[in-house]
Structure formats: structure tokens, C-alpha cells
Amino acid sequence: MSTTPFPLYLLPSIPFRRRRTSSTTTTSSVQTSSSSPSSSPPTYLTPPSTSYLRCSKCRTDLLPSTSIISKGFTGRHGRAYLVSPPTASTLYRPSPSTFLPPSQVAGLPNTKIHKPQPRQLVTGAHTVSDISCTGCGQVLGWKYVDAAEESQKYKVGKFILETKRVVRCVAWDEQPDEDECEDLFAGVWSRKVAIRRRRERGAWA
Which one of 91, 95, 114, 131 is least enclosed by Cβ atoms within 10 Å? Predict the structure, then answer.
């Protein structure tokens, strides 16, 4: 009687160690491996971040909240986050308002970097470029391009996001509803319609 083979691609790959020829070496190797604590799982099995920063106006995805370096900075509208560009491994698609592919990201996902200009900040003279949301055009903060003082150059290449211009969301609370899923399968999904529906639901974190 023939049986249906189990699809092996559903199983995670198991790392195998090279077999030793010496029996004494094999015995000591087994004892060592059994007594040592289990190693951490491979990185590809690690669940992705579930908390995100989004534009407060149009709810466009910006970056995982794990990219926040400090919450103690000050922007033009009050408190601000200092963030670093997200790595490719943290960029995945939690919802239809998705991140851009890493190859298309020039700084932060779904943002536009404007022309650099000198600006006097609390910590001294800097050269910064404003960044705005590509979804609605709202200015979200700025990118540090250069700093006059050596002690401030650690911020170069990093970004300021105004806390009044972004919202923090959790992925499990942002799953698309049935209507949105139907639109996706039918090939008629619209970003504007999805944003309107979500605003009407009032399900923002």
C-alpha cells in the first residue's frame, strides 16, 4: 500500500556534526554535548519584531520600534526619538501598507529625504535634512548629515522622529479585516480605501 510522502520542506533543517572515527573521541563528544546547555536557535527561526512606528497622519509604516536608539531627544515639536535605519532582516510585510524593499530604501522606509541645510540645534550647529512621509507628505523629523562638534558626530547618519508625528503600533492588532482580505484576493485592494476603513474602525494603538 502506497503512502503519501511527508513534505520534508515543512521541517526545519537540522545541523549535523561530522562523525568522528575514534570511539573514545565520539564518547567524550557525546558527553560534552549532553552536559552543555542548548545553544540558541538559528536566527532565521527568531520571530520578527512586532512593534512599529507609523506616520500619525496616514499610518504609513516607517520602521520597527527596535530601531529606536534613544527616547530622550528634543525635536521642533517636543520629544523625539533618535533612530537608526532598520536592517534588512527586520523589514518584512506586516500589512498592505508595507515597507519598501531594502534596495529602494534611501534612509528610512517610506520617507523622503530633503535638501541638507545648516541648523542650530540645542546640542550645537548641525547640517540636517528634513524627512517627510511619502504617503501624505507630513514632515516627520530630520536626518543628521553632519555635526560641527566632534562629540556630536555619533548622530551622523541617524534620524530624529517627532513623537507627535508618529504612532506606535503592534502587528497583531493590525491584521487586515475580511473586507481587506477579499480586496487583496480580488486584486482590487486600494491603499486609500484601506486607510479610510482603518480610521473608521479606530483600531490604532
Answer: 114
pLDDT digits (tens, 9 = 90+) for 98-112: 444 444 445 788 999
Decide if 111 contacts 131 (C-beta within 8 A): yes
Domain interval for residue 184: 175-205
Mention every residue, 6+ apart, whose C-beta is less than 8 A from residue 146. 116, 126, 127, 153, 156
Pairing of strands 78-83, 68-75: antiparallel
Task: Compute the average pLDDT of residues 55-73.
Answer: 90
The answer for residues whose C-beta is within 8 angstroms of residue 15's C-beta and 6 or more apart is: none
- Assigned domain for 38 exists: no
Cβ contact 112:134 at 8 Å = yes
Instruction: Measure CA 121 to chain center.
Output: 28
Q: How many domains does the chain have?
A: 2
What pTM does this model have? Answer: 0.54
Beta-sheet pairing, 111-113 with 51-55: unpaired
Whether 155 is covered by a domain: the verdict is: yes
